[in-house]
Write a structure and sequence with these properties.
By secondary structure, the chain is mostly helical. The protein folds into 2 domains: 69 residues, Arc Repressor Mutant, subunit A (Orthogonal Bundle); 167 residues, Up-down Bundle (Four Helix Bundle (Hemerythrin (Met), subunit A)). The protein is built from 11 helices and 2 strands, in the order αααββαααααααα. α5 packs parallel to α10. The protein is globular and about 65 Å long. It starts with a helix and ends with a helix.
Length: 246
């Protein structure tokens, strides 16, 4: 019995590592039990026990008759308290953008050095998906596609700590500046520069140029931050104008 538990713990650690490394992505369905047990060379009862452990930890979600999925939202524990703070102090959302300068510059640098062909294909696909969302449906879908593009570059850096920190930061941004993001992606004067910046970032990573990739990531974030600040100032100005009209 003790040995069986030890084996299931090892399997749980293997699956958790696969999730952390992005081999099993948020929202992705795990292979069928028979297939996964064969791939890991373990017994199905041990695999079942390991999956139950990860269900209890909130990493997996087993659905009756519908298979087992990686949880859509897996964020570091610091996200909830920070999100509460952002709701109280809206100006602090720009602190999040500032820290992205350092983190995403580093991620782009290492992605250019370490990305595999599979990573590069994923970056290309996320870039094309992002372009395909422009002007179609909900602007927040485009914002989420933008985040997925940036996360594909972080994944390509092969730094697990950086990946999980950045997932948490994107959760913070999506929750705290959703209104600004909706405006950002509907401004014609903003879309083309954003598109060009994303393309330069992608090309630097694909061509294996770490310094150029780092610079492209940081220049892009300066533009995003300045654009969001302009949106804020314009909204404040518009509110003042409406009060004057009254």
């Amino acid at each position: 019995m003790v040995n069986q538990k030890r084996i299931s713990d090892q399997i749980a650690e293997t699956l958790a590592a696969m999730i952390a490394a992005g081999e099993l992505k948020p929202g992705e369905r795990l292979p069928a039990e028979r297939v996964l047990a064969g791939r890991l060379a373990v017994s199905r009862p041990s695999l079942r026990e390991a999956i139950q452990k990860l269900n209890s930890k909130g990493l997996l979600d087993s659905r009756r008759g519908g298979g087992t999925y990686v949880r859509e939202q897996i964020e570091p524990s610091f996200v909830d308290p920070l999100l509460a703070m952002l709701k109280e102090l809206p100006g602090s959302r720009f602190d999040v953008l500032e820290i992205r300068h350092a983190l995403e510059g580093t991620a782009a640098y290492y992605a250019a050095l370490r990305s595999t062909e599979s990573d590069k294909q994923n970056v290309r696909e996320k870039f094309e998906a992002m372009l395909g969302k422009h002007g179609v449906g909900d602007p927040m879908d485009e914002a989420r596609a933008d985040a997925e593009f940036h996360l594909s570059i972080v994944e390509a850096s092969h730094n697990l700590v950086l990946l999980h920190v950045m997932r948490g930061l994107f959760t913070l941004l999506m929750n705290s500046i959703s209104h600004n993001l909706e405006n950002l992606y509907t401004l014609p004067r903003v879309f083309q520069p954003l598109s060009n910046q994303h393309r330069r970032l992608m090309e630097a990573v694909l061509e294996g140029d770490p310094e150029r990739a780092k610079q492209a990531a940081q220049s892009h974030l300066v533009f995003v931050e300045e654009s969001l600040q302009q949106i804020d100032r314009q909204e404040i100005s518009n509110r003042g104008h409406l009060r004057g009209v009254k």
